[in-house]
Each structure stands twice: as structure tokens, then as C-alpha cells.
Amino acid sequence: xxxxxxxxxxxxxxxxxxxxxxxxxxxxxxxxxxxxxxxxxxxxxxxxxxxxxxxxxxxxxxxxxxxxxxxxxxxxxxxxxxxxxxxxxxxxxxxxxxxxxxxxxxxxxxxxxxxxxxxxxxxxxxxxxxxxxxxxxxxxxxxxxxxxxxxxxxxxxxxxxxxxxxxxxxxxxxxxxxxxxxxxxxxxxxxxxxxxxxxxxxxxxxxxxxxxxxxxxxxxxxxxxxxxxxxxxxxxxxxxxxxxxxxxxxxxxxxxx
Length: 257
Known about the structure:
This protein has eight helices and seven strands; from the N terminus they run H-E-E-H-E-H-H-E-H-E-H-E-H-E-H. The protein is α/β, with parallel strands linked by helices. The protein has one domain (5-231): Glycerol-3-phosphate (1)-acyltransferase.
């Protein structure tokens, strides 16, 4: 299944925006034998610019991802129809139809075509050191339920371009943290690092076996964290960049010893 033309146009705009904002460094790759087949791309979540950086990085290695997005985004008056037209998938994490959304995603993946990008944490990490938070087993359940490979992706640097900001936007003043931080990034040109790791080994696990979804989730999160370590060797504890709007109320069970 080829990507909608509109989505490809937006991806081209995205690449220009990321090039304007900072410098993109991509390492690793996706094995050729997985291209064009059902595939999940599981990434850590460190900032609001993550998806745009990931889109640009995927283009660098010849991949066009779709995303699993919260229902609120797809219901937005203007943004929602655009995202739907681009082929992105819906998931309402707190509703009773999460299982149905996961089933739809598996069916979409089985039809082949573009991989689906997901954030197992479900939100931007609030761990003080910006290591991945615990996350949930949805990605693992999709992988095991559909026999779908998972490629772990580790990102670093996107948090320096756009502030965490506000929980909600009620007026133009609420947009100022995003705008001022982005304009500062254009001057500073931070480096956005994205690493595509080796597919996570899940062949010994089953969606029918109790506890295997949790085990698969742990392997995915540890693989993401392992890939993150070399991207931030000079920032092993706390990030150098300070975002005054970002809470530090979370915790990471995957933080390296």
C-alpha cells in the first residue's frame, strides 16, 4: 500500500522544517528483508518535536511511517481530517476499545505497506534524566498477536528544540513557550540523533502465554534504552538542556545502572 500523496507532501515539508531547526544524525537501519512487510517502529518519547524528527529520519533510510495517534488528535476540527487522510491510526488509550484499536492496527499492518510508528511510553517522559518511563504493553501485544517484528528506535536532542509547554492551550499566550523555544533552536541548531536498532527478539514468546506480553514489553524498552546510551554518552545522568516548563515527576525503571 503506497502512502497517500498528501502525506508524502507533508513529509517533504517536515524534512525542510527539521533541516531549518537543527542537524539530523541517523545511525542504524532497517533490515532489507523487513521492508514492505508488517513492521512496528517503537521509539522513546522525549519531546514535542519527536514525531517530526522521526519522520525525517525514516525518510533518510527510505521508510514512510504511519503513526498510532490519540483519539483527541484525530477528532480535532482541522488537524483531525488531515491526519486521517494521511492514513494514521486511532487509539483511545483510556477507553474500553483499546483492544479493538490494537486489532485494527494489526490488520492494517498485515495488509503490508508502511510500518507503524508507536511510542510505548504513551507520553513524553517526565523522568528527571529523560530516560524512558515504564510504558504499557500495547506495542508488545500487537507484535505478539500479529507476529510482527519490532524495530527499536532511540532519539536524543529533539527536547532541545521545542519546550514541553502546557497541558492545554487556551490562548495565544500558551503558544509562546513553543514559539520562543523553537526560534532559539533555529539560532542554536541542536543535533537530533536517531538510532534504528536491531529487531527485538520475540520469537520465543506468544500472545497466548500469560506474562509474555510483559516480557516482550520489557525487551522492547530495554532495547530502546540500550540504543539511547551511546547517543547521550556525555549526558548520562541529567540532560544539559534545561526546559523550565517540563515537570520532572516521572521515573524510569530502565535507566542504566
